[in-house]
Design goal:
Radius of gyration: 21 Å
Strand content: under 5%
Order of helices and strands: HHHHH
Shape: elongated
Largest sheet: none
Distance between the termini: 72 Å
Helix content: over 70%
């Protein structure tokens, strides 16, 4: 028999207050990906199969480079949040969950950084 109040039982097991923010950011990023994907796919599709110099010239255009950077940043942030929800929902062991959440953030962050770095290198040296 426990003499704890309902509040005492609930402390440490309730909402952290970030769920609504996370939900909104995920929805906004998914809506933002629609026009960004459309704008990013056309220069990419035109560059497929072209010589190296033509691809460099395409992404040396500031508009194409900025769209590619924005698309990469939003895509990796969106996927990081989606994977975070899956990990939080389905991994119940606290140690594994913490490790996977850290790995998710590091993997998505490093891949996003590498992509942005690659576009910037092409844009400024092309």
């Amino acid at each position: 028999m426990s003499y704890k109040t309902a509040k005492g039982l609930a402390i440490g097991h309730g909402s952290a207050g970030t769920g609504t923010h996370h939900w909104w950011v995920h929805r906004v990023s998914s809506v933002a990906l629609i026009p960004l994907s459309i704008l990013a796919i056309f220069p990419f599709a035109q560059s497929v199969g072209e010589p190296h110099a033509d691809v460099l010239a395409t992404y040396a255009n500031p508009f194409h480079a900025i769209v590619a950077i924005m698309w990469l940043a939003v895509t990796f942030h969106h996927s990081m949040q989606g994977l975070q929800v899956v990990i939080e929902d389905y991994v119940h062991h606290k140690g594994w969950r913490t490790g996977l959440l850290l790995g998710n953030q590091m993997f998505c962050g490093l891949c996003g950084f590498a992509g942005v770095f690659a576009v910037l290198k092409i844009a400024f040296t092309g």
